[in-house]
Amino acid sequence: METIPLVTEAQRERQLRRSSSRLPELWALLDAVSDPEIPVVSLWDLGILQDIKADEDKLTVEITPTYSGCPAMAEIAVEIEKALAATDYREVEVVSLLTPTWTTDFMSSQGREKLREYGIAPPAPKSLAEKISCPQCRSEEVELISEFGSTACKALYRCSDCLEPFDYFKCI
Amino acid sequence: MSQPLIDYCIAQGDDALIFGQRMTEWCYSAPFLEEDLALANVALDLIGRAQMFYDYAAELADDGRSADDIAFLRDARSYTNLLINELPRGDFAFSMARFLIVDTFNVLYLEQLVNSADERIAAIAAKAIKESRYHLRRSSDWVIRLGDGTEESHEKMQKGLEEVWGYHKELFIATAGERELIANNIAVDRESLYSQWSDQIDAVLKEATLSRPEDGWKVVGGREGIHTEHLGHMLSEMQYLQRSYPGVEW
Fold first, then answer.
1. Considering only alpha carbons, which residue of chain B is nearest residue A68?
2. Is there a contact between A68 and B42 if contact means CB atoms under 8 Å apart?
3. At residue B241, what are phi and psi to the nearest 5 degrees?
4. Which residue(s) pair with A49 in the sheet?
5. Which of A110, B105, B218, B236 falls between 20 and 30 A from B94, CA-CA?
6. What residues of B are in contact with residue A146 (Cβ under 8 Å)?
7. Is the peptide bond before B88 cis (omega within 30 degrees of 0)?
8. Residue of chain B minimizing CA distance to A97
9. What ipTM does the predicted assembly reach?
10. Residue A113 and residue A42 in contact, taking contact as beta carbons nearer than 8 Å
């Protein structure tokens, strides 16, 4: 029988790293940290947070940038350091990884819903058999206005039914 | 192997940084707001790409220089970007013709660079290819829309294409150092990409009802540090802050 996986291999590994981590309280602390440009979605839900490693009194947090020129990365690193400052670890280092290459497949289903509530249409990958829909009225009758929206990770659409323009989180 | 690899990373970084910096000039002066955003975002992708290559070059060279030092403390003669990246921004049609030429090349190049024997280079390429595919989709759309648009937009698009055409040849010339890296499967043989590039450009031009310019002239010299007069002016603006206040940080 053919098995159709609901999550990608990279995403499964990422979830496994979190669930098998010996530091669940630190992952929970970082759930309060988000991308400053999309404050409703945590780093975990956005798929940027990859791993947390502890070595005696030093913590290493691994993140994958969304786009190579993403200006939010420096601020995200500072926010992570702030969130972990109250722990017993003496030093926190945030490392930006090139591999695994970030993809919208890393985004959690919770993250997708939060994006929609916030007014941003979540990425519509082929694997989910989902179409781009208006975050306001859910209509799938939408048209592209521009390949780029307010940030590199978004495109600008307009709903043909309710006529509202909206940002769409591009699928990469 | 180390020096050719450092030079290669700096050259790749220079191509991306100079093109990106040039395209930021569109911010606030594009034909309409959505284009302001789009061009600024494409420029940002390119500048981010430059940083990845410079970071690697700085680690390999290990001479105390940072990626920022490489970007802000070199003169025009030390820059090794291809000339097509430094030309003045021109009008919107010229910019789209230039994007089409460069984006088509970048997609073909990066598709192979993801298999580089150097893991770091392969990882940078894996990140960059996603962005370049997106850039190409957009620049092709514009060239087709303007070429197959009104009489005036067609004329301007054809003129932009003619003006930039002679600069495409340099994309397909490898340096001696680069050939060493090609032999070791680290870099991609850019010369071998020409026929595919040519076919893809032809297909877009056909749909855009534009005619392919004659190959009557070409301009080269970027990789040897021989630049047009435009690069120096651009660097003086780009590097102003670091040169006036060395080491200044946000």
1. B48
2. no
3. -65, -45
4. A63
5. B236
6. 34-35, 37-38
7. no
8. B123
9. 0.78
10. no
Task: Give the model confidence (pLDDT) of B188-236 as tens digits.
Answer: 999 999 999 999 999 999 999 999 999 988 999 999 999 999 999 999 9
Cβ within 8 Å, pair B35-A70: no
3-state secondary structure chain A: CCCCCCCCHHHHHHHHHHHCCCCHHHHHHHCCCEECCEEEEEHHHHCCEEEEEEECCEEEEEECCCCCCCCCHHHHHHHHHHHHCCCCCCEEEEEECCCCCCCHHHCCHHHHHHHHHHCEECCCCHHHCCCCCCCCCCCCCEEEEECCCCCCCEEEEEECCCCCEEEEECCC
What is the tens place of the pLDDT at every residue in A94-123?
A: 999 888 888 888 888 888 899 999 999 998
pLDDT over 80 (residue A127):
no
What does pTM read for this prediction?
0.89
Terminal-to-terminal C-alpha distance of chain B: 36
Are A69 and B130 inside 8 Å of each other by CB? no
Alpha carbons B98 and B222: distance in angstroms, whole number: 16
Closest CA to B96 of B130, B151, B135, B49: B135
One-letter amino acid for residue A28 of the chain: A
Residue B20's closest chain A neighbor by CA? Answer: A69
Residue A126, pLDDT score? 66
Q: Say which amino acid occupies A18.
A: R
Handedness of CA A132, A135, A140, A146 (dihedral sign): negative
Shortest Cα distance, chain B CAs vs residue A79, angstroms: 17
